[in-house]
Design a protein that fits this description.
Helix content is 0%, strand content 49%. The chain has no helices and 11 strands. Strands 2, 4, 5, 6, 9, 10 and 11 form a 7-stranded mixed sheet that branches. A hairpin with a 6-residue loop joins strand 5 (46-51) and strand 6 (58-60).
Length: 126
C-alpha cells in the first residue's frame, strides 16, 4: 500500500518562496513517475508539474512554468516542488501523486495517478 505524505506548506507573501516535499513509502519509488496537483476552493483539482521516474523529463502547467521546479531524490523516496515568485492565485491545497503504472512517462492526466497524499495548504497573501 502506497503512502504519500506532503509537508512544507504554509502562508507566504506574494513574491515569496516555499518548498514542498512529499515522502513516499510502500513500493519502489524509483519506478514511478510523480506529480503535483493543486485544488483551490470551489475549483477542480488541476495539474501543476510532473517528473518521470528517473528524472529524465519534467513537464509544467503554463501557469507555473518558470516559477516552479519539480525534482526528486530516489535515494530518499521524496519528490519536491520548489515554488518561487508566488502569486495569490497559487493559493490552494497541493497534492502529490504517484502514477499507477511503473516506468511511465510525463502525464498531466489525474486519472493516471492512483495514489495521492492528504495535501498541504499553501496560502499566498497579496
Amino acid at each position: 500500500q502506497v503512502e504519500l505524505v506532503e509537508s512544507g506548506g504554509g502562508m507566504v507573501q506574494a513574491g515569496g518562496s516555499l518548498r514542498l516535499s512529499c515522502a513516499a513509502s510502500g513500493r519502489t519509488f524509483s519506478a514511478y513517475s510523480m506529480a503535483w496537483f493543486r485544488q483551490a476552493p470551489g475549483k477542480e483539482r488541476e495539474f501543476v508539474a510532473t517528473i518521470t521516474w528517473g528524472s529524465e523529463y519534467t513537464y509544467y502547467a503554463d501557469s507555473v512554468k518558470g516559477r516552479f521546479t519539480i525534482s526528486r531524490d530516489n535515494a530518499k523516496n521524496t519528490v519536491y516542488l520548489q515554488m518561487a515568485s508566488l502569486k495569490p492565485e497559487d493559493t490552494a491545497i497541493y497534492y502529490c501523486a504517484q502514477q499507477t503504472t511503473a516506468w511511465g512517462g510525463v502525464s498531466r492526466d489525474r486519472y493516471e495517478y492512483g495514489s495521492w497524499g492528504q495535501g498541504t495548504q499553501v496560502t499566498v497573501s497579496s
